[in-house]
From TrEMBL:
Residues 5-123 form the Tetrahydrofolate dehydrogenase/cyclohydrolase catalytic domain. One of its GO terms (molecular function) is methylenetetrahydrofolate dehydrogenase (NADP+) activity. PROSITE patterns: THF_DHG_CYH_2. This is C-1-tetrahydrofolate synthase, cytoplasmic. HAMAP family: THF_DHG_CYH. It catalyses: (6R)-5,10-methenyltetrahydrofolate + H2O = (6R)-10-formyltetrahydrofolate + H(+); (6S)-5,6,7,8-tetrahydrofolate + formate + ATP = (6R)-10-formyltetrahydrofolate + ADP + phosphate. Gene3D superfamilies: Leucine Dehydrogenase, chain A, domain 1 (3.40.50.10860), NAD(P)-binding Rossmann-like Domain (3.40.50.720). Homodimer. InterPro entries: Aminoacid_DH-like_N_sf, NAD(P)-bd_dom_sf, THF_DH/CycHdrlase, THF_DH/CycHdrlase_cat_dom, THF_DH/CycHdrlase_CS, THF_DH/CycHdrlase_NAD-bd_dom. GO terms for cellular component: cytosol.
C-alpha cells in the first residue's frame, strides 16, 4: 500500500520557509520587499478562485501583491502594454498571466506570456526560460511551478534530494506548462526520462518501466493500476471535474488512484497533491527573483 504524498503539508512547509527567508532578508536589508503581480483578463469564476488563493498565500507571509484586472474587451496591444508597465515597474518582482484568457477578442496568449521579462517570469513559461531549462542552464532558469512542485514532492516523499538520479522517469503528456518542462527538469536532475503522448505505442508497457511516473494528460483515471511498476513513485497532475447529479463537483486525477495506491510506494492524491505545490513554488520563485534583482544584481552594478 502506497504512502500518501501530502501536497498540502509539503506546500505549507515551502511557503512557511519563504516567509522565514523574507524575515531574515529584511533583517539584513530593511528596504527589501518581494511583490507578485497577477494579470487577469475577464472574470472567469474559476480563475477568480485560483487568483484569490495565490494572493492570500502570498500576503500571509508578508509578500507584496498586485492584482491587475483587465476588461474582456482588451486588445492584444493594450494587454502587452500592461505587461510592459509591470516589466518597467521596479517594485514588481514577479509577473504571471492567469490562463485561460477570458477575452472577446482573439489574443495570442503565447506572445503575451513571452512579453514578460524573463527575470520576472515566475511561472517560468517564457521561451527564454523554457529554452534555458531544455539546455540544462539550471542556475539561470526560473523553473515552471508545476514541474518544480512535482520534483519537490518526489524529493520530500522519499527524503532524498538525489532520488531522481539514475531512475527511470516516465512523463505522460508533452504540454508546454507541465509535461515537456517536467521531463527536462527530471532529466537535468539526472533521471533517464521518457516522454509519452497520445501517439505513443505500448503505453502501459512504457509506464511499467517507470521508477517515477508523472502524469499530466487531462483524462480522468486514464492510468490503470496494472500500468504502475511495483514500488514506483506516482505524481498525478490531473484535475478533472465531474459534475454530480446533486450539483456538487468531484475532482479526479489522471491516475486510477484506488488501484494504483495498491502497487506504488508513494502516490499523490487529487485534490491535495500537486495543486497546492504549484502555488507554493510560485511564491518561492517570486522571493528568489526579488533577491536576485534587488540584492544580487544591485551588488554587481555598484
Amino acid at each position: 500500500m502506497a504512502k500518501l504524498i501530502d501536497g498540502k503539508a509539503i506546500s505549507d512547509k515551502v511557503v512557511e520557509q519563504v516567509g522565514e527567508d523574507i524575515k531574515k532578508t529584511r533583517a539584513e536589508h530593511p528596504d527589501f520587499s518581494a511583490t507578485l503581480a497577477i494579470v487577469q483578463v475577464g472574470n472567469r469564476s474559476d480563475s477568480n478562485v485560483y487568483i484569490g488563493h495565490k494572493l492570500k498565500k502570498a500576503a500571509k507571509i508578508g509578500m507584496g501583491t498586485r492584482m491587475v484586472k483587465l476588461s474582456d474587451q482588451i486588445s492584444q496591444e493594450d494587454l502587452e502594454k500592461a505587461i510592459d508597465d509591470l516589466n518597467n515597474d521596479p517594485e514588481v518582482d514577479g509577473i504571471i498571466v492567469q490562463l485561460p484568457l477570458d477575452c472577446v477578442n482573439k489574443i495570442d496568449a503565447d506572445s503575451v506570456i513571452d512579453r514578460i521579462s524573463h527575470q520576472k517570469d515566475v511561472d517560468g513559461l517564457t521561451r527564454e526560460n523554457a529554452g534555458r531549462l531544455m539546455r540544462g542552464e539550471l542556475d539561470r532558469t526560473i523553473f515552471p511551478c508545476t514541474p518544480y512542485g512535482c520534483l519537490h514532492l518526489v524529493q520530500e516523499a522519499t527524503g532524498d534530494k538525489n532520488y531522481v538520479q539514475g531512475k527511470r522517469v516516465v512523463v505522460l503528456g508533452r504540454s508546454k506548462i507541465v509535461g515537456s518542462p517536467a521531463a527536462a527538469l527530471f532529466m537535468w536532475h539526472n533521471g533517464t526520462t521518457t516522454i509519452c503522448h497520445s501517439k505513443t505505442q505500448n503505453l502501459p508497457e512504457m509506464c511499467r518501466e517507470a521508477d517515477i511516473l508523472v502524469v499530466a494528460i487531462g483524462k480522468a483515471k486514464f492510468v490503470k493500476g496494472d500500468w504502475v511498476k511495483p514500488g514506483a513513485v506516482v505524481i498525478d497532475c490531473g484535475i478533472n471535474v465531474e459534475e454530480l447529479a446533486d450539483g456538487k463537483r468531484k475532482l479526479w486525477g489522471d491516475v486510477d488512484f484506488e488501484a494504483a495506491k495498491e502497487v506504488a510506494s508513494h502516490i499523490t492524491p487529487v485534490p491535495g497533491g500537486v495543486g497546492p505545490m504549484t502555488v507554493a513554488m510560485l511564491i518561492k520563485n517570486t522571493y528568489l527573483q526579488a533577491v536576485q534583482r534587488r540584492i544580487t544584481n544591485s551588488k554587481g552594478s555598484h
